């Protein structure tokens, strides 16, 4: 989700060396990393026990580098379709600013470094989960599922759900039910989040032959699935409370955020459509749902961390 709206005028005033640095940072998908780091950090904060500050910082950096490495390899592999999609045509590889081979080497080096450093700094369980998340995103989602099935984002979404498990394992040396609940929340959040995006970017996906749900099943079915997964997600976000893993602060915030999310999903579902399932009122509901979903996940995890700090 790199920023493709920067004007050529802004590029002209940026020194060449800084512009090149920006391109290498863009390869890491920094907007995605921000959520990955947040959920991984919360996984650390809510785990029983504490890491020394230096090791905690190292863990967060390794999670960020691992996610960025996967993003760089994804951009390398998808450079052919990125060049033909309006949303991604300005990315560094299709725009010709970074060579594909260099981008691949960059991603592989960062992936290896993140796993090795995390293993040495904390434990090899956390490093193993980090390696699994990188491999899942690269091999299962990017190379296998994305161009083959409309369920790509459902199954592939697991890749983005690993960070709280990594954070938890870094502190405890193991994986228990609690981080798996956080994994499940992100897993079920991913389809309504990404399908909202695909509703207003479906022309791009159709142009390059990527079988996103709006392309294969139409907008109407996609809107129905956004609502369905939102309905599945909301009670799931309350299971930490039912299992005693979170308290009333988290419960109140999760309920409020969930009601707003449901309102966005209902607006997407009710969007007027023609017989072919195309929207007649534009993409405003889908765009609003997509933007809110980003805030939703971040605020939900922040609420969990605050709850544990306040209530223990």
TrEMBL record:
<feature type="transmembrane region" description="Helical">
    <location>
        <begin position="289"/>
        <end position="306"/>
    </location>
</feature>
<keyword id="KW-0808">Transferase</keyword>
<dbReference type="InterPro" id="IPR044878">
    <property type="entry name" value="UbiA_sf"/>
</dbReference>
<keyword id="KW-1003">Cell membrane</keyword>
<comment type="similarity">
    <text>Belongs to the UbiA prenyltransferase family. Protoheme IX farnesyltransferase subfamily.</text>
</comment>
<feature type="transmembrane region" description="Helical">
    <location>
        <begin position="181"/>
        <end position="205"/>
    </location>
</feature>
<dbReference type="Pfam" id="PF01040">
    <property type="entry name" value="UbiA"/>
</dbReference>
<keyword id="KW-0350">Heme biosynthesis</keyword>
<feature type="transmembrane region" description="Helical">
    <location>
        <begin position="32"/>
        <end position="49"/>
    </location>
</feature>
<feature type="transmembrane region" description="Helical">
    <location>
        <begin position="124"/>
        <end position="141"/>
    </location>
</feature>
<dbReference type="InterPro" id="IPR030470">
    <property type="entry name" value="UbiA_prenylTrfase_CS"/>
</dbReference>
<keyword id="KW-1133">Transmembrane helix</keyword>
<protein>
    <recommendedName>
        <fullName>Protoheme IX farnesyltransferase</fullName>
        <ecNumber>2.5.1.141</ecNumber>
    </recommendedName>
</protein>
<dbReference type="GO" id="GO:0048034">
    <property type="term" value="P:heme O biosynthetic process"/>
</dbReference>
<feature type="transmembrane region" description="Helical">
    <location>
        <begin position="249"/>
        <end position="269"/>
    </location>
</feature>
<keyword id="KW-0812">Transmembrane</keyword>
<feature type="transmembrane region" description="Helical">
    <location>
        <begin position="98"/>
        <end position="118"/>
    </location>
</feature>
<feature type="transmembrane region" description="Helical">
    <location>
        <begin position="55"/>
        <end position="77"/>
    </location>
</feature>
<comment type="pathway">
    <text>Porphyrin-containing compound metabolism; heme O biosynthesis; heme O from protoheme: step 1/1.</text>
</comment>
<keyword id="KW-0472">Membrane</keyword>
<dbReference type="GO" id="GO:0005886">
    <property type="term" value="C:plasma membrane"/>
</dbReference>
<dbReference type="InterPro" id="IPR000537">
    <property type="entry name" value="UbiA_prenyltransferase"/>
</dbReference>
<feature type="transmembrane region" description="Helical">
    <location>
        <begin position="153"/>
        <end position="175"/>
    </location>
</feature>
<dbReference type="InterPro" id="IPR006369">
    <property type="entry name" value="Protohaem_IX_farnesylTrfase"/>
</dbReference>
<comment type="function">
    <text>Converts heme B (protoheme IX) to heme O by substitution of the vinyl group on carbon 2 of heme B porphyrin ring with a hydroxyethyl farnesyl side group.</text>
</comment>
<feature type="transmembrane region" description="Helical">
    <location>
        <begin position="226"/>
        <end position="243"/>
    </location>
</feature>
<dbReference type="GO" id="GO:0008495">
    <property type="term" value="F:protoheme IX farnesyltransferase activity"/>
</dbReference>
């Amino acid at each position: 989700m790199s920023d493709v709206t920067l004007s050529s005028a802004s590029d002209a005033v940026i020194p060449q060396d800084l512009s090149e640095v920006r391109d290498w940072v863009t390869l890491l998908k920094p907007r995605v990393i921000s959520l990955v780091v947040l959920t991984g950090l919360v996984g650390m904060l809510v785990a029983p026990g504490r890491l020394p500050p230096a090791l905690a910082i190292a863990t967060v950096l390794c999670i960020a580098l691992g996610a960025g490495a996967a993003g760089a390899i994804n951009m390398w592999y998808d450079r052919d379709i990125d060049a033909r999609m309006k949303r991604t045509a300005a990315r560094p590889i299709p725009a010709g600013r970074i060579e594909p081979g260099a981008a691949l080497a960059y991603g592989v080096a960062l992936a290896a470094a993140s796993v090795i450093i995390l293993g040495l700094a904390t434990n090899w369980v956390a490093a193993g989960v980090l390696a699994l998340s990188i491999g899942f995103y690269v091999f299962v989602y990017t190379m296998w599922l994305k161009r083959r099935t409309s369920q790509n984002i459902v199954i592939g979404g697991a890749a983005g759900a690993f960070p709280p498990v990594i954070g938890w394992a870094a502190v405890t040396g193991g994986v228990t039910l609690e981080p798996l609940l956080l994994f499940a929340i992100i897993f079920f959040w991913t389809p309504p989040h990404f399908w909202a995006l695909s509703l207003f970017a479906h022309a791009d996906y159709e142009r390059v032959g990527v079988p996103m749900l709006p392309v294969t099943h139409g907008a109407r079915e996609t809107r129905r699935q956004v609502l369905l997964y939102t309905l599945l997600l909301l009670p799931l976000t309350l299971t930490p409370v039912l299992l005693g893993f979170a308290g009333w602060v988290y419960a109140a915030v999760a309920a409020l955020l969930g009601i707003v999310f449901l309102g966005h999903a209902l607006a997407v579902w009710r969007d007027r459509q023609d017989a072919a399932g195309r929207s007649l009122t534009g993409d405003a509901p889908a765009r609003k749902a997509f933007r809110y979903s980003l805030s939703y996940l971040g605020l939900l995890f922040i609420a969990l961390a605050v709850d544990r700090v306040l209530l223990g």
